[in-house]
Design brief:
By secondary structure, the chain is α/β, with parallel strands linked by helices. The protein has a single domain (4-236), classed as NAD(P)-binding Rossmann-like Domain (Rossmann fold, 3-Layer(aba) Sandwich). The protein contains nine helices and seven strands, in the order E-H-E-H-E-H-E-H-E-H-H-E-H-H-H-E. The chain has helices spanning 13-24, 38-50, 65-78, 102-130, 141-145, 151-171, 189-192, 196-204, 214-225; strands at residues 4-7, 28-33, 56-59, 84-87, 133-138, 176-183, 236-239. Helix 1 packs across helix 9, helix 3 packs parallel to helix 4 (102-130) and helix 4 packs parallel to helix 6. The longest helix is centred in the middle third of the chain and has 29 residues, at 102-130. It comes from Thiorhodococcus mannitoliphagus. Pfam families: adh_short.
Length: 246
């Protein structure tokens, strides 16, 4: 039986690489997207099919506990219980703190951090009962070192790893691992759209002198999702080209 893998924010740049890699590794993959992205998700699904990947898509607002629970119920009914959960959904609302409004703080905390509770909670008990589960939370180098203008994002991403370490202790004796990946800058449509001077300045500060490829992030996730990583839990795996060493 193929393992069921759910990737939140699955149709984004990094999410796409994760979905295709897990599918290559034999998982039956479901990519979550926001309800407002349904047209884009349909195009995305066709594009993946043209590459030979049969990846399901499902709409849900993961910042809502009720909608996330509904999504997990639908996946369980259609495909089976979720074995591998990758919490990848995220947004930015960057502003210096003196200009940051409450709505910008709350939006980022809700989508980037509260979603991790919202989606993990409905799959957790089933994983414990079945004696297998892989939960992988996609944080960020900026959750480790902070970033100017990102008090909201850095707080949410740091919070994800606190969640990882606590939950890892609850799942350890039951065969359920919980880990964090903290990518640095990744070459996606978003970073490629940056002003050249800004992008070159970022790359100049990375010891490897380049951004990560999405596939390099996906490879780290594939390892943590595998049977070979059964003894790895509560870890924060940095994939940042040496940008931050801890």
């Amino acid at each position: 039986m193929a393992r069921i893998a759910l990737v939140t924010g699955g149709i984004g740049g990094i999410g796409t690489a994760i979905c295709t890699r897990l599918a290559k590794d034999g998982c039956s993959v479901v990519a979550n997207h926001h309800p407002s992205e349904s047209d884009a998700a349909e195009e995305w699904k066709k594009a993946r099919a043209s590459e030979g990947f049969d990846i399901a898509t499902i709409a849900a607002d993961v910042s809502s506990f009720e909608d996330a629970t509904r999504m997990i119920t639908e996946i369980s009914e259609q495909y089976g219980p979720v074995d591998v959960l990758v919490n990848c959904a995220g947004i930015t609302r960057d502003k210096t703190f003196k200009k940051m409004e409450a709505a910008q703080w709350q939006a980022v905390i809700n989508v980037n951090l509260n979603s991790v509770f919202n989606v993990t909670r409905p799959v957790w008990e089933g994983m414990l009962e079945r004696g297998f589960g892989r939960i992988i939370n996609i944080s960020s180098v900026n959750g480790q070192r902070g970033q100017f203008g990102q008090a909201n994002y850095s707080a949410a991403k740091a919070g994800m790893h606190g969640f990882t370490m606590a939950l890892a202790q609850e799942g350890a004796s039951k065969g359920v691992t919980v880990n964090t990946i903290s990518p640095g800058y990744v070459e996606t449509a978003m970073t490629l759209a940056m002003d050249d001077a800004v992008r070159n300045s970022i790359i100049g500060g990375i010891p490897m002198r380049r951004m990560a490829q999405p596939d390099e992030i996906a490879a780290a996730i594939a390892f943590l999702a595998s049977d070979q990583a059964a003894y790895v839990t509560g870890a924060n795996l940095p994939v940042n080209g040496g940008l931050f060493m801890h």
